[in-house]
C-alpha cells in the first residue's frame, strides 16, 4: 500500500469533485462509504489501481493506493482532484449562487483516462440512465478484473477494475445482448476499443482538438464527446448538447421556460468558459428539474429482444 496526503491551497470536497466519475449506486469501480471515504479503481498505463480517499479537513485528503498503478496514480492526484481547474473570474448566475457558495470545494476532475469515460458514455446513449448503469455493472463484473487491495465493507463481491481495450473489443454479441446493450451501442464501444491508443492521446491534446478526435469514431457524437471531456479532460465548458432532459432543465432553471439545445446554449453563453460548471451547480441546487409533462418514458430492456 502507498499512502499520500494531498493538501490543496483551496477548499477541496473530494465527494463532489470525483462524484461524476461514478456510474450509478452499485458501480463496481466506485464506492462511497458510510464513513465519508470514497473508493475508486482505474486502469493506468502501469497497471490497475485501487484508491481510497479519506477526507482530512477542508483542504486535505489522505489517499491509500494499491496495485501496480499506485505510483502513477499518486503522481496524477493533483490533476485528478482538479488542481488545474481554474474558476477565477467565474460569476455564477443568481439561481446557483447559493449552491456555488456551499460547494466551494467542488472542482471539475480530470482523470486522463479516455476509454474509461467513453464506454459508460456510449452505454448511456439514447437509453434511460438506470438501464445504462445496469449494463455497465454487468459488463465490468463479467469482463473486468478484481481490484487490488482490500475490498470496502458493504460491497458484495468487492470492487473491479475496468476491462482493457482488447477485452472490450472481444466482448461477444451474445454478452452485449445479455447486458441489455443494443447492437448499435455495442458496435460503437468495439470501434472505440479498436482505436483506443489514438483516443487516449486526446487527453494530452488541446481541448479544441481533443473532442474532434473522439468524434471521428462512428457512433461518437457531440453529446458523448462532451461527457468524456467533462471527466477525462477536466473541461468546465463542455455542454452535453443532445441530452434528452438537459435543455428543458437548464431553460426552466435560468429562464422559467423550457427550451431546446439552441436555447440552452444561448442561456449558458454568458458563462463560458464555465458552462458545464453552471450545469453541475444547477444539479446541486435542485433547480435542474423542469415540471414533468406526460407519462414517464417506459424502460426498454434489450435483453428481451
From TrEMBL:
Keyword DNA damage: yes
InterPro entries: Alkylbase_DNA_Glycosylase/TA, DNA_glycosylase
SUPFAM superfamilies noted in UniProt: DNA-glycosylase (SSF48150)
UniProt keyword annotation of tRNA-binding present: no
Entry GO MF terms: alkylated DNA binding; DNA-3-methyladenine glycosylase activity; DNA-7-methylguanine glycosylase activity
Keywords: DNA damage, DNA repair
One CC-aspect GO term: protein-DNA complex
GO annotation terms (biological process): base-excision repair, AP site formation; DNA alkylation repair
Highest rank taxon of the organism: Bacteria
Coiled-coil regions listed: none
Protein name in UniProt: 3-methyladenine DNA glycosylase/8-oxoguanine DNA glycosylase
Species whose genome carries this gene: Promicromonospora thailandica
